[in-house]
Amino acid sequence: MIRVLLLPLLILPSTLSAPSPLFEKAKALVLISFDGFRFDTLNSTIAPNITSWAAEGVLFKNGVQPQASTVTAPNHYSIVTGLYEDAHGIVGNIFFDAERRKFYDIYNLSSIPGTIEESLNPYWYTSETIWQSNRKAGGHSAVVHWPIGDVASGNDNETSFHAWREHGNLSKWQDEVEVVIDSLLEGKNLVAWYISEPDHTLHTQGFYHDGHFRRVMADLDVTFGYFLNRLKTLELYNTTDIIFTADHGHAEIRSLDVVLCMDEYIKGQIGVDYQVSDYTVLAYTEQQAIEVFESLTKAVAEKQIPAKVMWTKDVPAEWHFSHPSRLGQVMVLPEIGTDARFKCPWKDPATFHSSTHGHAPEKKEMRAVLAMRGPSFAEKREIDSIPQNIDIFPLMGKILGVPIPANNGTLERVELALRSPPSTEDTVEDPQLMNSNIARIFNILLILMPIAVLSIILYYIIMRVRRGPNKQLAADLTNEATEPML
Length: 486
Ligand SMILES: *[C@@H]1O[C@H](CO)[C@@H](O)[C@H](O)[C@H]1NC(C)=O
Ligand SMILES: *[C@@H]1O[C@H](CO)[C@@H](O)[C@H](O)[C@H]1NC(C)=O
Ligand SMILES: *[C@@H]1O[C@H](CO)[C@@H](O)[C@H](O)[C@H]1NC(C)=O
Ligand SMILES: *[C@@H]1O[C@H](CO)[C@@H](O)[C@H](O)[C@H]1NC(C)=O
Ligand SMILES: *[C@@H]1O[C@H](CO)[C@@H](O)[C@H](O)[C@H]1NC(C)=O
Ligand SMILES: *[C@@H]1O[C@H](CO)[C@@H](O)[C@H](O)[C@H]1NC(C)=O
Ligand SMILES: *[C@@H]1O[C@H](CO)[C@@H](O)[C@H](O)[C@H]1NC(C)=O
Hints:
Elements: H1 2-17, E1 28-34, H2 48-56, E2 58-60, H3 72-81, H4 85-88, E3 94-97, E4 102-105, H5 115-119, H6 130-136, E5 141-144, E6 160-162, H7 170-185, E7 190-195, H8 199-205, H9 212-233, E8 240-245, E9 251-252, E10 259-261, E11 275-276, E12 280-282, H10 286-303, E13 307-311, E14 330-334, E15 339-341, E16 355-356, E17 370-373, E18 381-383, H11 392-400, H12 437-467, H13 471-482
Parallel strand pairs: 1-7, 1-8, 2-18, 5-6, 5-7, 10-15
Antiparallel strand pairs: 2-17, 3-4, 8-17, 9-16, 11-12, 12-14, 13-14
Helix pairs in contact: 1-12, 7-9
The structure holds 2-acetamido-2-deoxy-beta-D-glucopyranose (NAG) (7 copies).
One 2-acetamido-2-deoxy-beta-D-glucopyranose (NAG) binds next to loops.
Signal peptide: 1-17
Protein name: AP3A hydrolase
Keywords: Membrane, Signal, Transmembrane, Transmembrane helix
């Protein structure tokens, strides 16, 4: 009788530490970025495979906010370091470091010979990436085309790097899926995978011209579906965490009339008389800076382009975009629907179809997609709040279980995505294995119930002893209760 009553006590320790039978612990994390994938282009018409996958897991319905400047290389570095751009120092795809008097231009936008080579110098990359943290903790990673992922990691001989070479196409991307899959089969516990679309198509065709955007999205969707099918066939689907995101969104440029071609208004030659970053002008003297500010302000007014010409020091403090030696004094901030370029490649307004990014990070159109699924994540959960892409870094550290360096991300802004949000009283060995608050309440009941039962028994015994009819029974009961519980 008493053994039965004590049963809850016997099962208590194992209930607390055993994994829930519904899911296993994640064996690996795959971080995916499709360049320029705006949050609201994830829908069942445009990308059915990705949309139904996202519905199984966690979807940040309103997307994720990028960092200023909202361009490719800096944001990919922010995602994997958790740092603002001015903290990791890659403040643009292109910028001049006035202190070092060197030009950074990882995509050869300036066409200056030797500039890519210079941009590969380890000097530029001083921040710890998630795969470096993973390696320090004994993990193994593969980096498949992640922008600057290969160069930003020094001479890391443990991580498999696959440098980005081309925009590719469906058959090329399916080959890349096999690289990701092979990495998982080799036992990598972290894979970062990147495709440079739909960004490339959006820049060259815009959202609406001739079905180009829809076609590239369909191909990306089939690639994603193919990846999921490979995981399922190999029985990796339920043990792999996937985070799907992008570096920034995109905004269609209304017409060529609202594009400011800055070199037409600034005296002198880029790279000789003044330097540029993506949207700032670095003048060599204060007087020259004032001239640039005035001529651009005049140009914007005359051409009636909805763009703001401002001093870089006046950007909102929450942008954390204030590098002392790498940003120019004057900044042009185009409104959504417009663009500002140092050199304009377009001539004919009739054939002009283009979308762009680089606008203010808090603009809706700049937000990227963010969805996740896997054993670490909640199921069928839609989240309204808008995290920042730097928050993905502490989230990855958490689910990989590796120590990460100090960073600018905030885990609290994304932890709703976890299957069980971290609890303050960490009495449980692995909080991820406790799947919900209901489980926690149940466990508290499991502790309280035996205590209540024991109290009743003790009360019963004491009353019996006091009444004194059967002292032997009381002794037996006490002995039985102190027997080893096996
Ligand atoms: C998906 O987005 C497209 C383009 O914005 C829109 O035309 C379509 O109605 C949307 N479909 C759904 C199911 O939301
Ligand atoms: C950069 O562009 C210039 C001009 O198009 C070209 O000559 C040079 O080879 C390019 N550099 C690299 C590394 O591709
Ligand atoms: C990587 O480099 C370290 C230190 O130089 C060395 O001990 C280790 O064996 C190397 N690992 C591989 C896989 O080459
Ligand atoms: C896809 O790209 C590869 C090169 O990466 C090329 O050989 C192949 O012909 C392309 N396929 C299509 C359908 O364009
Ligand atoms: C999803 O991806 C698969 C590739 O595995 C493709 O065959 C299928 O057509 C896609 N589904 C939809 C609805 O596009
Ligand atoms: C994943 O787990 C779910 C629930 O346990 C199960 O229904 C499903 O068949 C599993 N899928 C695969 C591909 O193993
Ligand atoms: C961002 O993080 C870095 C590294 O921890 C820190 O030095 C810097 O002060 C942080 N920036 C802000 C604005 O908090």
